[in-house]
Predict the structure.
Amino acid sequence: MGNHKDTVTSRQVTIAVFSLVIGAGILTVSREVVDTVQTPDAWISVLLAGLLTMIAGAMSVILCNRYPGRTIFQFSKEVVGPVIGTVANTIAILYFIFIAGFETRILSEIVSTYLLHRTPEKVLMITFIWVATYQAIGGINPILKAFEIYFPIVIVLLVGILLLSMRKFEIINILPFFGNGITPLLKGVGSSLTIYAGYEIIFVTTAWMEKPKDAMKSLFKGLILTTVINTAVVLITIGVMSIDEIKNLAWPTSSLVAEIYLPGGFIENYKLFFIIIWMISIYTTFLGVQYLAAVGISQNFPVKYRNALFAILPFIYLVALVPHDLGEVFIMGSAVGYTWLGIGLVVPMLFLVISLIRGNKKGGRAKQK
Amino acid sequence: MKAKKISAFTLIIIMFTCAACWDRHEVEELGLVVAMAVDKESGSDDKFTMTTQFVNPNGVREPETGFKDSKAYFNLSRSGESIFETLQDFDIVSSRIPNFEHLNIIVISQEAAKSIDVYRFVHTLLAFWEVPRNAYVLISESEARSLLSREPELEHMPAFEIDRMVTTETGTSKKQFKRSLGDLAKDFAAGSSVAVQKVSFEESIALKGAAIICGKEYKLLGFLDERETEGLNWLNGNAVLSSISIEEKESGNVINTTLNIKKHKIEPKIKDDRISFKVSIIAEGDITENWSETSDVMESEFLRGIEVQISDEMEKRIYDTLDALQKKFKADVAYFWKTVRSTDFRLWEEIKDDWDDIFSEADIEVNVDFHTRGFHNRTSR
């Protein structure tokens, strides 16, 4: 399946970008950024990283629009030749499987920490993978529909939780700006870029958009939204927790939620909402990357989409089992991020440059005809 | 068709055999822990005793007869060296599984706070996922567990009584502003000393004064008395509707006003490596008690005089507090360090390890500006 005739609306692309980017990374991003930057203005790095991602995203859309109706898995062979193209595609597929495994592991870590303490993690992972697979069988459209359904729930709960935690926000905790100069902030951009992994869905969706010209606009809407959310999460976590405490927190965002207290005791435990949000966010991210991996396989190798989907399941599960402890899970998280720097940022730029050089010749020939 | 039937049958069988709930907890089977007391075990340096207060649902529910058939709470104690192990050991003595998600109050006795590392304690508790960051920490002057076994008059159980007392903010600033586990963790992580509420036992449970825990050794340094605590609350801008009394200059009559900190600001001045601070506080209040025979609260001149006198009195008390913090304890529990960090980050990174010494020598200028808004329902006496 992986129905290529189905069309995709601009709004769906925006939501898809949001759903894929907001995933496991946001749980730990504050600690990672603060650890590298070491100053209270670490959130600026997150903002800058968002802007950088937008530039990379814009280039990707320009690239995709040069090959209308085809996904990156199809046109990459034309850009860099069949051999390198296939190699590049295979690496991308492995990368998506890697992310899928990582998201599965993070989900099981959170659920077993906060919700189901005695349920074996393997059971959690297998259940999760199977549910996502059931949804992914239908191809791109059911997946995007699911994103559309989850999107308002995530946004409302997320914004609600951020607003509630503002009660304990101390402005003195985020001052001063540029207190240690701009260099640490630039270092922080590197580690905060990793949370923007996931916009790659546009490499595939642009091909099937109703109006491919809108791809750029939808991408930007999605990325602006995610940049705002990511920056707000880091800013508020620093404002509430202060940088010294963040370094001690395994899941800073979850501890932020634990700080929420409303007098009157209407609801005491806000962790519940937090778990709902992040189970959904991780689920949508997983669904997206699982789909990308399967589509990649079906368009590169003589395998049907549906079979590819089932074929990658054991690999996803194996990847999820690799880390021995929580520390290794976090290392795996940074590994995902840094791989993305290559695949999500550098490769599209390279492809665009090569495509521009080669494409010009072609355009010339087309005119002569 | 046959294959379908077989698979459906298999699925149904699987559904029944594999259905499981590893994490099933019936609410009635949980032992909700609402308070915890930490005491030092007598005769041992490292061991401490933990007492937890469980809710007894049968006692909370009012039976039809109108009589409570049992107490609303019960306390259990265990001793040990490891915090987590001791908590887990409650399984041995409790018929219900202890659940710490509703832990509200943690009372540490003076003896225990002097000997155990409070930061390690806070850190270990918070690492345990069930313990909420919002549980309030208090230091008791006497034995902590005895506070949890005193039958309360108004509330169902001692933990609730203390919790209500801790969270009420209006009325007085003689008790230190509440501090939770999360607040302590934040301050200790930054290497800051922290002042927490002190609980003592007089005729009833009383929350007055503050206990100062050092940000270096994480041990109890000592207590601030009520007056000093009041000064500290004003410094931190935490006073919500408290009151202050003075004697009028000319007649010596007592005049009392309410007091509400409207604005407070700490400005650091960094000059040639010497750090000084300027504290400006704007407070507001009504005249509530006036024993003066001659004066009239309608007269604005009289009010202006009172304002100056109250401002001076507040300044004096704040200076007393600062004296105790700087000379006696060398502990910056009024968060002057935060203002330094937010002004000059690089300097702060250099001096933060010696902050307690720098703070104890810093010049601090306090400026209080008190305004009366007027008086309550009656004009002159």
